[in-house]
Each structure stands twice: as C-alpha cells, then as structure tokens.
Amino acid sequence: MLQSADLHRDVWRASDRAHATVATVPAGHAALSAWLPDEGWPLGQLIEILTDRPGCGELSLLVPAMLALSGKCPIVLLRPPLIPNMQAWQQWQIDLHRLWWIQPAGLHDAWWSAEQILRSQCAAALLCWADPIDARLLRRLHLSAQASDTLFVMFRPRDSASLFSPAVLRLELIADSAQGPSLRLLKSRGPKPAHDISLRGEPGSVSTMCTTDSSPSAETGARSNPQTVCDVPDRRSARAGLRAVERSQVV
Predict the structure, then answer these.
(1) CATH number attached to the domain at 23-217
(2) Domain parsing of the chain, residue ranges
(3) DSSP state, 160?
(4) What are the residues facing 76 on neighbouring strands?
(5) DSSP label of 212
(6) Which positions ≥6 away from 243 have C-beta within 8 Å?
(7) 8 A C-beta contact, residue 219 and residue 74
(8) CA–CA distance, 93 with 32 (Å, rounded to integer)
(9) Model pTM?
(10) How confident is the model at residue 39 (pLDDT cuts 50, 70, 90)?
C-alpha cells in the first residue's frame, strides 16, 4: 500500500493532516492557522476565496501575510471590482509604494497579465479578480504559480464553489453571519473542520476593516500616488505596466 510520503506533492490522503510541502507565509489568524498546513498560506499555489459580494472584508484576511511579504517586491491588485481604499491600506501599515493596482480593459487581458506576473516572479503577492474563468485557464495559472514564491489569491463569487478548481486551498467567506464573520474551508490538504471557522475578535478581522471604497475621494486618494495605479487599456500597455512592477523591486 502506498504511504503518504510516496505520493506526489499535489496528491494527499483526505484523512491525513499532512504538513505542507511548499513554502508558506503566516496566516496571522489563530483559528484559521490551526487548519492550514504549517499554519500559513501556501506560496506558489492557487488559493481561492469565495464571497457573495466584493468589498465584504476579504482583503483583511490577508493583511498579516501581506505585512510579512512587504519587502522589496510589490503587492499587485489585478482588476479589483472596487476602487482600493488607500486609507485602509495605510491603516494596515502596508507601504503604498509597494502597492500596485493594475486595471486591464477586459478578462482576457487580466488572465494574460496574471500569467505574466506569476512567470516573471515580480510580485510578492498577486490578488486577482478575473471571473468568470474556466478550469483550463485556472490550471494554467496554477502551474505558472508553482514556478514562483508568490502568494496567489483569486477572489471568486460564492456560486463558483460547485465548479472544479485546481486550487490547493478554497475558502468561503461568510461575512454576514449572525454569529459574526466566519470562514468555511471547502478544500485543503487533510480533513476539513466539522464547523465553520469563526473570525470574531480576530485582529484585523473582516468585521473591523474597510477594504474598498467607490467614492470619488477614494479614487483621488488612490491616484495621488503614481506607483499605486496602472491603467491597462490593452496588452501593449500591460507589458509596460509589468515592466514597471519589475523595476520597482530594485528601487
């Protein structure tokens, strides 16, 4: 009989609480850490966070990880559905000079940009909103991520839970629960918890942080720092934007 150690790193027994075979970054949330391999977010892997709407606090889940990764490589927001709230990012003490907002014109350019960012290994974290996306493209992005040490997170609608995904970790954020914000672990290495993971009282939890703002003042604040925004009307402009991200690593 095959032992767990004999299996490929992307194959695991559902009954095993195996340690991750990939690098991780601390999750920073005690309840979540208890259910993640090596108590952290896997790097170089596709992670999916499912929500019923954008701007419900999904980014605050990643604040401890982004702080741990905020060295010289930038954090890239790719095609966010709402304008990033720079005041929230400053409150999180994340260096805005290392925050890049790339807004492609359409989904195909977003998929292309994500693949180039992962292949070039120019970002510490890539947070991507590029749904709908089919399983073939997800697999392609997942393979590109595996050649990097990037924290790669795709935010997708809750109804994507029934669709196939190669993601090694899938979480559903339930922000409007009467018991407070919680996470449902849909897929991970090892067994799933019997109950949802409560985030009530966690530092930087979804109930206490504002992550997005669609007001004109927020847009003005975002665009006041030229390193924060990169509009991408087409693929040629995307290449220029990605070169700027790569150059920012050595600033």
Answers:
(1) 3.40.50.300
(2) 23-217
(3) G
(4) 100, 126
(5) B
(6) none
(7) no
(8) 22
(9) 0.78
(10) confident
